[in-house]
Amino acid sequence: MNPAKMSKMLQKAQKMQAKMxxxxxxxxxxxxxxxxAVRATVDGQKNLLALEIESDVLADAGAEMVADLVLAAVxxxxxxxxxEVQKKMADLAGAMGLPPGIGF
Length: 104
Fold this sequence. Notes:
104 residues; 3 helices; three-stranded antiparallel beta sheet; alpha+beta; Ybab, Chain: A; 61% helix; rod-shaped
């Protein structure tokens, strides 16, 4: 392959990867548990940004039940981040002309 063409392709890949990292960092994913009684919001790095617990859940459920609902909501949100990142990686690979299944 022509070195100039290879260099140009690498530059394009770096720009696309930087854009993807910015998009991932900007992600805000929300998930809930207990029929919406507990809601968790995480960012693209899976950091917990917000946690909302309905007041009636706090009054009616025991501490163990609330903890279980919190864990379920946070894990679901974090799993959704993984799914979104995989989708973005596949899109990037496709945009670069790589065959399906080849990731970074």
